[in-house]
Specification:
- The chain is mainly alpha-helical and 204 residues long.
- The protein is 76% helix and 0% strand.
- It folds into two domains: 44 residues, Arc Repressor Mutant, subunit A, CATH 1.10.10.60; 152 residues, Tetracycline Repressor, domain 2 (Orthogonal Bundle), CATH 1.10.357.10.
- α8 crosses α9.
- It is elongated and about 60 Å long.
- The protein starts with a helix and ends with a helix.
């Protein structure tokens, strides 16, 4: 793996595991197994790393959101859950406050704000689309609550679960998070959609 790619990968892991604010350039260099000077050679600041992460996130998000617009219930359900995997991979972008960025780097802060707004809009649009297709049997009054619960899981589940279940693997915790999302949606699924869900996922 090239040095630049390694720094991008390890800084993302570090920001996710701790926070953007608490991750010093020295820590990033150590985790990436490079000299701090090498870090500075590739990136002028931590904010440059955030910009790269944002670009990677948007690419992954956009490639998966296509499936959540599908008119096929199976593809819609699979696409919906694949998005949450992407959210967990870049969760610090949705979790951290970026107070320093808001003051010193307003353009970057706006990009972070915009992508979070886009995620909120995507979640609501997808739930409404699923309702209109008959995948979800849901009243208008319940839409916002279901959207908000699913977004809380998407933004915060992995951090919470890693503290509560420190001995469990990341794969196990992600599966547990998917099961929580299923429990959120399951009571509202049509009988046909429950069959699809039961085939691909365990709701236990």
């Amino acid at each position: 793996m090239k040095t630049r790619e390694k720094i991008i990968k390890e800084s993302l892991s570090l920001f996710n595991e701790t926070t953007f604010e608490s991750s010093t350039t020295n820590l990033i260099a150590k985790k990436s197994d490079v000299l701090e000077g090498s870090l500075w050679y590739h990136f002028n600041s931590k904010n440059d790393l955030v910009s790269v992460h944002l670009g990677l996130f948007k690419d992954s998000f956009n490639s998966q959101r296509i499936h959540s617009k599908s008119d096929d219930p199976k593809n819609l359900i699979l696409g919906l859950f694949s998005i949450y995997e992407v959210l967990w991979d870049y969760r610090y972008l949705m979790r951290d406050s970026f107070e320093q960025c808001s003051n010193d780097f307003p353009e970057l802060n706006k990009k972070i704000f915009d992508i979070n707004s886009e995620i909120d809009e995507w979640a609501k649009e997808t739930i409404i689309h699923a309702r209109d297709l008959g995948v979800l049997l849901i009243k208008d009054d319940d839409i916002n609550s279901i959207v908000e619960i699913s977004l809380i899981i998407g933004r915060h589940w992995l951090d919470y679960s890693m503290k509560k279940y420190p001995s469990e693997s990341n794969i196990y915790l992600r599966k547990k998070g998917i099961n929580l999302l299923i429990k959120n949606f399951y009571p509202y699924l049509s009988p046909e959609s429950k069959e699809v869900m039961d085939y691909f996922y365990s709701s236990d």
